[in-house]
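Notebook p. 47: complex prediction with NAP.
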Amino acid sequence: MGERMKKERVVIIGSGPAGLTAALYTARAQLAPVVIAGAQLGGQVAITHEIENYPGFPDGLSGPELVERMKEHAENFGAKFEFDLVESVDFSRGSPFLVKTMGEEYLADAVIVTIGADPRKLGVPGEIEFIGAGVSYCGTCDGFFFRGKDIVVVGGGDSALEEGIFLTRFANSVNIIHRRDELRAGVQLQQRAFNNEKISFTWDSVVEEIIGADDGGVNAVRLKNRVTGEETTHPTEGVFIFIGHDPNNAVFGDQIALNENGYIITDQRYRTNVEGVFAAGEIQDEIWRQVATSVGQGTSAAMAAIQWLEEHEEHLQDLNALPEAQA
Ligand code: NAP
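Predicted complex, structure tokens below:
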């Protein structure tokens, strides 16, 4: 074992709700998990300004507050947090697994991957600046704050239409901006959107800039028609962007089985194809993406990992003794 290498029972990669919950459960099982938290504790949740749909908090709370509470809860039972980024893993020889971060190397008997997926960005001026102040990637999270307002949705897939329809519960009007003149979304969703009198479409158009108002919010988008080249300014107070997600699978290379969209494949027990490696949250769930669903998945993955470690205790002890014996 290298001098810098730390031997751990459980390493959790990612600190969103799935990772924080897995940390709590494995900590309560006396496994002293290490959470490689990434650059920002809480991942996507940390940039959600208010969460009103997490049970038990009827007055809502901010994303950063929720993740801070979850961290404290896990720490109280012995979880350790490292604000570090995973650079690579070696799952090829089975447990114990090598996890290399920028600052450390860990050997972990079990690994729980909760590294999430990031909403794809438009990459236009104003987008990052107005996140949480008019720009959103989650209708369920933020729709409520746009009651009576005129908003736009960007994208032409199932998410854009489904979320656009959902947002008509709150918004006065929803204009869906799509880069082509044909939707990617399924026919049924298309029909529901066409039949919804609050929804209109802007075809063949891309957002070039998100423009701010004096009050710190958004007040318009600058659009470009891809066919005619014409540029227009469309007034709006909210920009909801649904142009797909990118699962954070880069550090795993081909060491773990992914589906055709790049999400980790798990079974009902949140086991991956690598025995001893589990996955939970948005890195393996491309459908629900809610704090509450990630918490549930993190619980299941942790319980599966705890059970797996118990079942393999003897074998792991033998393996762990090996490097010292050979040193
Ligand atoms: P998606 O199907 O990949 O659609 C992304 C949409 O965004 C496409 O219309 C695409 O345009 C557009 N887009 C991509 N990059 C863009 C950019 N840079 N600028 C402007 N527009 C851009 O993603 P999704 O809608 O999130 O769906 C992901 C998966 O989940 C799909 O398999 C979907 O069927 C599934 N899903 C299903 C349901 C449901 O069944 N109820 C609900 C949600 C999601 P183009 O069309 O021109 O490529």
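Notes: The chain has a mean pLDDT of 94. The chain has two domains: 5-119+245-326, 135-241.
Next step: compare against the earlier run before touching the bench.
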